[in-house]
Specification:
296 residues, alpha/beta, Rossmann fold, 7-stranded mixed sheet, two-stranded antiparallel sheet, 9 helices, globular
């Protein structure tokens, strides 16, 4: 029922809902043309801000030029604070701190062609924990082509103030020697996060077979995707009341995760004496009936 129900109401439609301030941290902020950011629904809330990082200086300047004052972008290489070799590729979105695994990529249609290294240069990475512009993080998005674990390793303090992590993960070595999904999963679980869901899985068809008209079609092999992690699901007592409310908003408006949003609101009500969960359940049931889905 996901998108149909979500289109009928937003969390702010609940009477008396206090809207907490939320910060989005976007590591790898270069947008894909024609595709809205996954966190776009959060930007409609008063007090929402974005702190983004895009190491391409010109692209970063363009993001700042066309964005409102509530969104700030910095041309930093985010990682674990070490000196690294950065590989610029023919498509900026595939540039990475890791070397493309060309021999493997050539087994698939339209992958190696997107990951040709055109320049290598030494860079100094910065840790999230050392960046003063970052405070409490409602939503952390990572899209850094295999270097996600480096970013997380440099942000263990920031993770203690983060509610939801939306990170790209790879299941095979698209970049040589890169950490894979299992490594990301183990790290985040070790820091109090619970895997929630995949928000998209991608792949390609292996040569010589070919999907006519769509070289990006995945016949069977999944190669990468986006994984969503939520803090405090197993122990909501570790979250403050405002954190529970912000988490409920993110889960409803970004992911249509109605059951988990209701869980967060119920614990918020228990702390504050409010009745938001009852209002939410009523609105959810009413919205669901419009699309032929009934909740118990």
């Amino acid at each position: 029922m996901g998108g149909n129900v979500a289109a009928l109401f937003r969390m702010t439609d609940i009477p008396g809902l206090p809207v907490p301030e939320m910060t989005v941290v976007d590591v790898g902020a270069l947008p894909i043309e024609g595709r809205p950011e996954v966190y776009e629904p959060l930007l409609a809330y008063p007090g929402s801000t974005v702190v983004g990082f895009e190491p391409d200086v010109e692209a970063c300047a363009e993001l700042n030029r066309r964005s409102p004052a509530t969104r700030r972008y910095f041309p930093y290489f985010i990682g674990d604070g070490s000196v690294e070799l950065f590989r610029s590729c023919n498509f900026p979105m595939t540039s990475s701190l890791f070397e493309p695994n060309t021999a493997f990529l050539e087994r698939f249609h339209n992958l190696a062609e997107l990951c040709r290294v055109v320049d290598r240069r030494t860079v100094v990475t910065r840790r999230l924990d050392d960046i003063s512009e970052i405070g409490a993080v409602g939503f952390l998005k990572l899209d850094v082509q295999g270097a996600e674990l480096k970013v997380l390793t440099g942000g263990v303090v920031s993770l203690k103030r983060t509610l939801v992590v939306h990170t790209e993960v790879e299941f095979v070595e698209i970049y040589a020697g890169q950490p894979l999904f299992a490594d990301i999963d183990q790290f985040l679980r070790g820091h109090g996060f619970v895997f929630h869901r995949f928000a998209g899985l991608e792949g390609r068809t292996m040569r010589p077979l070919f999907h006519v008209g769509d070289p990006d079609h995945a016949m069977s092999q999944i190669l990468w995707g986006d994984a969503v992690y939520v803090r405090g699901v197993g122990n909501p007592e570790t979250l403050g009341a405002e954190e529970l409310l912000a988490q409920a908003i993110i889960l409803h408006d970004v992911y249509q995760s109605f059951d988990l949003a209701l869980f967060c609101l119920s614990h918020y009500d228990a702390r504050t004496g409010s009745a938001l969960a009852t209002s939410y359940r009523t609105m959810l049931t009413t919205a669901a009936s419009h699309v032929g889905v009934f909740l118990h």
